[in-house]
Amino acid sequence: MSGLPIRKLYIDTKFKTADSASNSDFKFQLPRSAFMPLGSMFVIDEVNIPYSWNTVEKDINDKLYVGWVSSGGGSTYNMLTLPSKRYTGTELASQMQTLLNAIGGGSSSWTVSYDYVVNNITISSANPFLKILTDADLKISSAFTDEFRQNPKSINEILQIEGFSLSGFYNNAGYPFTTGFLNLLNYQDLYITSASMGSFDSQGPRGESTIIRKVSVNTAWGFSIIDKIGDVKSDGMSCSKLSLSTIDFQLRDVKGRIVPLHGANLSFVVKFSVE
Predict the structure, then answer these.
(1) Is the dihedral of CA 152, 158, 159, 165 positive or negative?
(2) Considering only Cβ atoms within 10 Å of each terminal Cβ, which end of the chain, N or C, has fewer?
(3) Are 242 and 36 in contact (CB under 8 A)?
């Protein structure tokens, strides 16, 4: 370890800088600058992330987009907003039914049910017909503004529906709409990113080079995700010739969105080595 100005850097959001945005998007100030010598490597280890986010989060995945055809034959499109909270399958089905039956001014009547055996939701109605719009639908729909077409903030990843087109997919009592296998976790994998320390040693699913650690969600809500990694030299990333002073960190999902922790603190250790 000769020549390393620092071997371990213990990060805890309790000690983030005052100008940090949140416990998921923060900066950490070193007491003094550390210049990493040639051949330096690092790894993020001993990760502790509290599972404190909701199934549905405001302005992240709280929108449900529907198209429906009334008994008179007219097509109507609506954007429904679900309250931000943790949901069971039954609670999600009940909330969707409440929102759907409110959009027709009393003329619509949908039944939304949850099947715990196969973990999906079914929406049925004798009249009117209904379509849940996928994110792909929204990109070609003129019923919503560009803001929501480009960033729909939909619950479709929870419902796990994809691959439909706008035409011909309204559903009646004989052909009820069925979601995929519900993803009530919301996030399956988390990504710790840093523009200060990220490099071309890695490439994320969207082509980004700032990911420095992937963490799988392997515990239940209310508990901490504890994740450890192996040897720095075999799993490490280059920080050769970097000058570290104020380091930024973010906790993101696979789409690059900041994961809300609602005030809960995360921690991890940055371990350094040199070739």
Answers:
(1) positive
(2) N
(3) yes
CATH number, domain with residue 256? 2.60.120
Write the pLDDT tens digit of every residue in 129-141: 778 888 888 888 8
Contacts of 17 (CB under 8 A, 6+ apart): 26, 27, 28, 29, 246
Sorted by sequence, the CB contacts under 8 Å of residue 130 that are 6+ apart come out as: 66, 67, 68, 100, 110, 123, 170, 171, 177
The answer for residues whose C-beta is within 8 angstroms of residue 125's C-beta and 6 or more apart is 108, 109, 110, 111, 172, 173
Could you give the CA distance from residue 96 to residue 100 in angstroms, rounded to a whole number? 6
Judgement on whether residues 153 and 117 belong to the same structural domain of the protein:
yes
pLDDT in tens, 149-179: 888 999 999 998 765 444 445 555 567 888 8
Asked if residue 59 lies in contact with residue 233, where contact means CB atoms within 8 angstroms, the answer is: no
- Indicate the helix (H) or strand (E) that contains 212: strand 211-216
Nearest one of 165, 104, 98 to 129, comparing CA atoms: 104
- Do residue 131 and residue 199 come from a single domain? no
Asked if omega into 128 is within 30° of 0 (cis), the reply is yes
Does residue 94 sit in helix, strand or coil? helix
Domain hosting residue 27, numbered range: 8-53+187-274
For residues 75 and 151, membership in a common domain is answered with: yes
pLDDT, tens only, 206-239: 888 899 999 999 999 999 999 987 665 667 889 9
Torsion-angle region of residue 246: left (phi > 0), alpha (psi -120 to 50) or beta?
beta
Q: Are residues 153 and 119 in the same domain?
A: yes
Question: Is this structure's pTM higher than 0.85?
Answer: yes
